[in-house]
UniProtKB/TrEMBL annotation:
Similarity remark: Belongs to the exbB/tolQ family.
Classification via Pfam families: MotA_ExbB
Keywords: Cell inner membrane, Cell membrane, Membrane, Protein transport, Transmembrane, Transmembrane helix, Transport
Subcellular location: Cell inner membrane; Membrane
A GO cellular-component term linked to this record: plasma membrane
Function text: Involved in the TonB-dependent energy-dependent transport of various receptor-bound substrates. Protects ExbD from proteolytic degradation and functionally stabilizes TonB.
Topology of the protein relative to the lipid bilayer: Multi-pass membrane protein
Protein known as: Biopolymer transport protein ExbB
Residues covered by the MotA/TolQ/ExbB proton channel domain: 110-215
InterPro entries to which the protein is assigned, alphabetical: ExbB/TolQ_transport (IPR050790), MotA_ExbB_proton_chnl (IPR002898)
Chain segments annotated as transmembrane: 31-52, 139-164, 184-205
Subunit structure: The accessory proteins ExbB and ExbD seem to form a complex with TonB.
Origin species: Novosphingobium mathurense
Length: 256
């Protein structure tokens, strides 16, 4: 046992010690390295927070659209249909703003101005909803554009420190260069690790926002047509005929 312990101790002493880990890179980088990592960490947390919160918000609006298609337009009036929609939802806001504009519509003597007022009120409500959905996306775009440069800044400072240390030591051997330069490149990797998810999240959320905006525009036009026609005009889906029951197979003729 004594021989085994001696050999194990000798092996540990002979094994090279890794002094170029992430923690060591932060310690050698000093304030700038810590500040870079903290900034990138805040950017990453904010990006994922916006991704998940916006995804849930968009999913809720898309789910509520099924209620609009199946229940809202079956109501005889907009007011009764609005009662079937969830409060504080995008679709309820459009209907409530349309009803409010209709109430003020009767006070106008010029029919052209009245139509413009209705159209403008619904368009303004639609723009408000789209602006609320787009909130947070500029942060994702900013992270995707600046995170690589923040990481590159940490890399440049790290390489500068490494070159100063090599100059002071007076040696440029591979063991003196590879470690410090490798530590500095960690910052670039962190910057890319933060930027890529932010860009993907931005493009994904933006595409869903465009889809929702198209739905809101269509619904807004349907509400406007319904108001102008005094409830006579509704989307085709609301008045679609029920599917006919499948015909029963004809009975086989009796054998004589």
């Amino acid at each position: 046992m004594l021989i085994v312990d001696i050999l194990a101790a000798a092996g540990e002493a002979a094994a090279p010690q890794n002094k170029f880990g992430f923690a060591e890179a932060l310690e050698q980088g000093g304030f700038i390295a810590y500040a870079t990592v903290i900034i990138l960490g805040i950017m990453s947390f904010g990006s994922f927070y916006i991704l998940f919160t916006k995804w849930f918000e968009q999913s809720k609006i898309l789910r509520q659209f099924n209620t609009v298609r199946t229940s809202f337009w079956k109501a005889p009036t907009l007011r009764e249909g609005a009662a079937k929609l969830e409060k504080n939802s995008a679709w309820r806001q459009l209907v409530d703003d349309g009803i409010a504009a209709e109430d003020q519509h009767a006070k106008m003597t010029d029919s052209l101005e009245a139509h413009d007022w209705l159209h403008g009120s619904l368009a303004r409500s639609e723009s408000t909803i789209n602006a609320r959905l787009a909130s947070g996306l500029p942060f994702l775009a900013t992270v995707g554009a600046t995170a690589p440069f923040i990481g590159l800044f940490g890399t440049v400072v790290g390489i500068y420190r490494a070159l100063i240390a090599i100059g002071i030591a007076g040696s440029a051997s591979i063991d003196k260069v590879a470690g410090p330069v490798g530590e500095a490149l960690i910052m670039t990797a962190l910057g890319l690790l933060v930027a890529v998810p932010a860009v993907l999240a931005y493009n994904y959320l933006q595409s869903r926002n465009k889809r929702i905006a198209e739905m809101l525009t269509g619904f807004s036009n349907d509400v406007l047509a319904n108001i102008n026609s005094k409830g006579a005009v509704k989307p085709a889906i609301a008045s679609a005929p029920a599917k006919a029951a499948p015909a029963k197979p004809a009975a086989a003729p009796a054998k004589s």
